[in-house]
Amino acid sequence: xxxxxxxxxxxxxxxxxxxxxxxxxxxxxxxxxxxxxxxxxxxxxxxxxxxxxxxxxxxxxxxxxxxxxxxxxxxxxxxxxxxxxxxxxxxxxxxxxxxxxxxxxxxxxxxxxxxxxxxxxxxxxxxxxxxxxxxxxxxxxxxxxxxxxxxxxxxxxxxxxxxxxxxxxxxxxxxxxxxxxxxxxxxxxxxxxxxxxxxxxxxxxxxxxxxxxxxxxxxxxxxxxxxxxxxxxxxxxxxxxxxxxxxxxxxxxxxxxxxxxxxxxxxxxxxxxxxxxxxxxxxxxxxxxx
Amino acid sequence: xxxxxxxxxxxxxxxxxxxxxxxxxxxxxxxxxxxxxxxxxxxxxxxxxxxxxxxxxxxxxxxxxxxxxxxxxxxxxxxxxxxxxxxxxxxxxxxxxxxxxxxxxxxxxxxxxxxxxxxxxxxxxxxxxxxxxxxxxxxxxxxxxxxxxxxxxxxxxxxxxxxxxxxxxxxxxxxxxxxxxxxxxxxxxxxxxxxxxxxxxxxxxxxxxxxxxxxxxxxxxxxxxxxxxxxxxxxxxxxxxxxxxxxxxxxxxxxxxxxxxxxxxxxxxxxxxxxxxxx
Lengths: 290, 279
Fold this sequence. Notes:
The complex is a heterodimer. Chain A is an alpha/beta fold.
């Protein structure tokens, strides 16, 4: 004789089985790769289809921050991104006077829809999500990891990686910043690992850690706007898979191939390295740590 | 002369044995059905191969095991220190809450406020306040964040344990104190020799249960910066893009909890037996 609970139990087991199989996710398809292989095309003002014929319209946000721009004047050619933009324009065959700057907010630039610019430089990290809405050129900047601290800290005057050996350093968990500590600096004290950069920054303010590692754009922002007496100790050599900044173009823009080729040339002939040294390392006070 | 059960009694025994065998068989059958359903359901799912790769990858497990074990050692040390101090704090607060007499009102009020606040405050917030707030005061001799984080765990769990202890103390019948006092013991002596031993014994299972909970929560210390087992696993997950390190850490935590859980069960069983010894 079966107890009166038995049918319930068996029914429950059957339901469970049904639920487990019914709810099984359908295998999603592999995302189709968006190949941006540009066909061989001539890149000169006569053949490029820009917004205004013979002119190159470049967008960026207002205010345009140091050290990517200078004095909020993108058209003065100073600051890393302004300099890169003019170099790209030159490679495409535009005179300095053919460059027109236009103001586009960060979010508008990467939103789908018609664009008010031919190209846009505004510290855009290249991501697959953004690729769905816009085109990116080849990267013109690989984000570098940077040690920052406060004036009172013992590592404020550090000049080399060796000077950081005895420091208590911190970084956000799972980031290239943390990797930079363990792989490059290899300090004698275990690094502190935080949930996010805000926690790391607070620990730095409290003196719980001697310094923290963040990426260079964050370093500029934290030392300039967030930290009292914040100083950049220096940039670390490249490590891990860095974030990359790319020039934004309209989705499917006819210019993408030409702009990417111009950026590739700038990297290959060393122009980007020179500009980086001029605008990010020297004038922005983020020296290289070796 | 040996005792022989009556025929009626032998029938009863045989019947009971039959029922027992039937129960075992039924339990086995239903377990087999459910087990097969789960196995077929999970391993038959279209995503199973991928889940197996990203959660149960032996190579990743071996690669990150040393780092996770190193982190776990920190958890174990913290557990011992935090559990001991939290139990002491809880007992102290519970005794303060049960003090009689109008003179002690402020003490009782403070102890009550403490248990109310810290049982309500999420542990994560307490750790943030202690590990990031206290060093911000820039006082001389501020201890290491590790100690501040441990203090946060101790005061939070102290509040829970205090309530458990208080429940135990109040479960001891007032006549016990009356009897002790009539024998000439002072209130303190009565508490120490008569009430507390009985109280602690009665609430031992919930106390141990809270200790098991504390064992997992010491992992929240990683919010303050130190790398414990869970944080080490998190770093492994970020590096390998594979969730296996979390599974490894989870298994280690279960293994760590097993002895304590077993002790809890044993204590509970023993307490129940003693309680029912007369019946």
